[in-house]
Design brief:
- This protein is mostly helical and about 300 residues long.
- The protein has nine helices and three strands; from the N terminus they run ααααααααββαβ.
- It has two domains: about 210 residues, Alpha-lytic protease prodomain-like; about 80 residues, Alpha-Beta Plaits (2-Layer Sandwich), CATH 3.30.70.1350.
């Protein structure tokens, strides 16, 4: 990756962390002013955004960090461990918000909404900041092709719905005295938080269990290998995901009569081609003579 692209990706990651931090502070203030559960749910969502943004920034930083003597395959699994912890925390927050919302719905005397105007102002500012951030992330992703930045922009775009819901609930409480709307919106936002947390948990769990890469990526690698000049066939294509990196192992079948230099050149060029197509990968290629009979003591494929 070019140095300019790295700097753009890092700038997008820093902007994401900065905006998420501002939103958390702004919504904390709005929650104290209004006591609205819909804002509490939006606050939890922004806190999740902050954690995800920090993870994304770490992923960009880790991408340029070489492996060390103690971690020969890098440190990307730390992202998966952090994601597991984040998902459990988010689930706990969703349960707490849901419990409070149900309590308010069952007892109309609970949860009087205060200072609705200030809450609406805070949420409007949140929407504006989010839109500006998404605009910048889209520009960076279009230039650098970063999947981390693109995924982060989609995540923030999806967060606009809870913010709009909070504004509608505050408006309904201010205009018509319908404070129960706040609890209903909070329940919906808590459900969205829970669904997102389960997805994060599954993604991180699959990565820690060495799940294979996305089928489209596997098919793309197969197409590159199968069509590469000098490669007569391939087998034992294995992939596993770890954090933001995908590890790829493949055996290719070459002309056994060619020199070692020629075989190496073919494998090295193929490796570079796979890395160009999938920059966030680590590729290892083993070379076999075409038509070789496996030794009986070799592990089964």
């Amino acid at each position: 990756m070019m140095q300019a692209d790295k700097q753009l990706n890092i700038s997008a990651g820093l902007a994401s962390v900065l905006v998420a931090s501002v939103l958390v502070g702004l919504k904390l203030w709005a929650l104290g002013e209004t006591q609205a559960l819909s804002i509490a749910a939006s606050l939890a969502d922004s806190a999740m955004d902050l954690m995800v943004s920090l993870g994304g920034l770490a992923a960009i930083w880790y991408a340029s960090r070489p492996a060390d003597e103690d971690h020969r395959f890098g440190h990307t699994s730390a992202e998966d461990l952090a994601a597991l912890g984040q998902s459990l925390f988010i689930l706990a927050v969703a349960v707490v918000i849901s419990w409070g919302a149900i309590g308010r719905l069952l007892d109309a005397r609970e949860g009087v909404i205060l200072a609705e105007g200030r809450g609406i102002l805070a949420m409007t500012i949140s929407i504006v900041l989010t839109l500006v951030l998404v605009w910048w992330q889209r520009r960076v992703a279009a230039q650098t092709g970063s999947r981390v930045v693109r995924a982060d922009s989609l995540h923030y775009l999806g967060d606009l719905l809870p913010n709009i819901g909070a504004i509608l609930s505050l408006w309904a409480a201010q205009r018509f005295g319908l404070e129960q709307v706040d609890s209903v919106v909070a329940l919906g936002a808590a459900l969205m938080l829970a669904v997102g947390a389960v997805r994060i948990f599954k993604w991180a769990w699959d990565a820690l269990m060495d799940r294979v890469a996305d089928p489209e990526m596997v098919a793309g690698i197969e197409a590159i290998v199968a069509g590469w000049p000098g490669v007569f066939g391939f087998h034992d294509l294995k992939t596993r995901v770890s954090g933001s990196k995908v590890f790829v192992n493949v055996h290719i079948e070459l002309d056994g009569g060619q020199s070692l230099d020629e075989a190496h050149a073919t494998g090295a060029a193929l490796r570079r081609a796979i890395l160009r197509a999938y920059p966030a990968s680590d590729v290892m290629i083993h070379k076999d003579p075409v038509g070789v009979t496996p030794h009986p003591d070799d592990p089964s494929r």
